[in-house]
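Bug #77: duplicate submission created two jobs. Keeping one. Sequence:
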Amino acid sequence: MSEPAFQRARSAEAKQAREAAILDAARTLGGVRGVRDVTLTDIAAAVGMHKSALLRYFETREQIFLALTAEGWREWSAALLGDLAERSEATPAEVAAVLAGTLAARPMFCDLLAQAPLNLERNVSIESVRSFKLVTLRAVELISGELGRLLGLDEAQSVDTVATATSLAGALWQMATPGPRLRELYTSDPRLSHAVVEVEPRLNRVLTAYLTGLGVRSTAAT
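Kept job's structure:
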């Protein structure tokens, strides 16, 4: 039985709807399987189109997931800023807990944070990378403002804090999701149990130590 012919979007609104459907499919598949295991063919099938038709909307598989990474930066930074903005004062440990909690609550974003520099940025156009970097730059600028207000961090310290939090969240998520066979190995041998980590507690500990080690002030102490 032949598949129904794919109808190309003709209007700007139809094109936007098609792109949104593609992103939704990639988001769902990535959340279930992990970003690394989702192919362009998988995404096309989930949307109900041929891979060649999908390429009319996105240049590569990586561009789709890079768009979702940018979306993740916007969503995470908004949630983080919403929490921090409500605080008139905070300690380094409290800020670390908010950073760790908001990141750990977004597992696919953590996955994307690891994938973006490894491969997503490397198989898209320069303009796609530029657009993505501008999104992250704006998010970091806004977060830095709150870190400066609450902890007295300067620009370099704030940027380093965000970079530490996001890069470590990406790495820890990969360690926390080794796959069924490796997880069985790690849990079957007590000597290997350390190989599976819980993202939020470890990220919280590292960020607390990092911010405390900077020797920054907290508004609670001023």
